[in-house]
Amino acid sequence: MFAIILNVILWVPHVQAVWACVRSCPANCVCTQERSCSVLCNHAGLGQIPSEFPCEASYINLDKNSIKFLSERAFGTLPSLKSLSLNHNNISFITPGAFKGLPSLTELKMAHNEYIRYLHTRTFTALRRLVKLDLADCNLFNIPDRIFIELPALQELFCFQNNFRRIPGAIRGMENLTRVYLERNRIEAVAYNSLQGLTKLKYLNLQDNRINVIHERAFQGCQKMEYLYLNDNLISELPENSFDGLRCLKMLNLGGNFLRNVSNTWFRDLGELEVLYLDRNRISYIEEGAFENLTSLVALHLNSNNLTTLPFSVFQPVYFLGRLYLFRNPWECDCRIQWLKEWMENYKLVRDIPCASPSSVAGIDLMDVFYERSPEGYCLDPVELNVTSEGPTPSEEPWSTTESKFNSLISKLLLQMGLPEEVTNTTEVYSNATQMDGLMDGVSSGVGKDCIEAVLFFYLPALFTVIILQHK
């Protein structure tokens, strides 16, 4: 009996809380006990923020409405609210202090509001517990440098797919930031102070921008960085000490740029690096020692470059690598990469490496190339077939010989027709109609000239066919 009474006592407050959440639910919204009290107003056709929410609300979803304006204290006072979502609306202006009265808010989502474009310095004032802020795809061109000054707890910032031309200065000195998403903007450079003071940053995504300049030691203040995306930019050169200090880095993506070589200074500090993307560049040369400090490397992506060879002396320090991607390169399958074939056979971790040269193995996968040995045991390069030579093959005769045969044949035909010897001695292969007319003018009129014309008319096509066939 005591247990039953205790359960009833404990159950009554829960029922009261649920009832309070439902009782104050805004029109066109649904309120549930999920997350204590969730207010679901998404797809509700709302043109403005409801005037009242349940005081117990911990989660409010206002996604995919037509809300345009957020006034000061737009949500009233909601001491328990932890998550607020305003994605996919038509918000164009946010009054400074719009989020006052939300002291417990940890997550604010305002992505895909393409008309915002501008934010006031005090837009997020009083949100001292905010951990996650999503401003993706809002058509922002810039944000004030001091806009996050009252957000000391901010850890995750989503600003991808905007119009930033530089890394927002507002993130400098944000000591608690751990993840920053800035992909698909118009950022052109990573300056020496762009990331200053981000001592806890672990994840930075700058892919698909217009970055063509990275200053020396641009990442030196990010010593906790683990994931760095710089792929699909316009990078053609990197400073020698680009990644110095990133001793915790696990993944570096430099794919889809315009790099032509790999320096032996870039990765010297990256002893913890596990995955390195250098694919889709224009790399034709890798300096010896470029990978020698990558003792933790598991996967290396070198596909879709201009590599013709990969000397063992360059690759030796990471010979224990787990995955190596080399396809879509114009490989020259000579003895310099025989070691790679042996490694492929032994470890079965690399495949699809079609050869581009020598011609005798062009189109053949490296795995299927047979390397012959000299009597001393040295590797012999596959032969280069002379498939494009324009010179005569052993079965051909020089053009001068064929031309002589043609002249002789014409002379015999003319002699058989009883023409003078001086005429037959002038027969040659003429290259144009003017020369042929000269020949005809040198012959007396009458039967002789008619005979020559007949000979030329009936026999020349066949003779030229013979010459062409012989010349081939």
UniProtKB/TrEMBL annotation:
The keyword Repeat applies. Keywords: Leucine-rich repeat, Repeat, Signal. GO terms for cellular component: plasma membrane. PROSITE patterns: LRR. Residues 329-380 form the LRRCT domain. Residues 24-59 form the LRRNT domain. InterPro entries: Cys-rich_flank_reg_C, Leu-rich_rpt, Leu-rich_rpt_typical-subtyp, LRR_dom_sf, LRR_TM_domain-containing, LRRNT. It comes from the Eukaryota. SUPFAM superfamilies: L domain-like (SSF52058). It holds the Pfam family LRR_8. The keyword Repeat applies. Residues 1-17 form the signal peptide. Gene3D superfamilies: Ribonuclease Inhibitor. This is Nyctalopin. It comes from Athene cunicularia.
